[in-house]
Design goal:
two-stranded antiparallel sheet; alpha+beta; 4 strands; 5 helices; globular
């Protein structure tokens, strides 16, 4: 299951609910790499498909990792500069005048 396309966060109840209007993700918030673990969690939620539980998200090659950063590094999500280039491209698009 591709979690973001099937569920949506409801602020009022503070729970995830099944999407009523089909599989659509309208906006994902920008998360700066300087935020640390939240950045790596965001990366995992957008890159890893078919996750059905928190434990499954943290498992790589049958090893459950303690941090989201280790989960990203282990399968090689950060072997190239592609992720950093995408981050910079998104930052350029969000640039505001000083």
């Amino acid at each position: 299951m591709d979690f973001p396309s099937m569920f949506t966060w409801t602020n009022g109840t503070k729970k995830w609910t099944i999407r009523q209007r089909g599989c659509y993700v309208g906006h994902l918030y920008f998360v700066s790499p300087s935020i640390g673990e939240r950045y790596f969690l965001c990366t995992l939620l957008t890159k890893v498909k078919g996750v059905v539980s928190f434990e499954a998200l943290c498992t790589v090659n049958n090893v459950v990792h303690d941090t989201f950063k280790l989960v990203c590094i282990t399968p090689g999500l950060y072997d190239s500069d592609d992720e950093w280039n995408a981050c910079f491209e998104e930052a350029v698009g969000m640039q505001t005048s000083a």
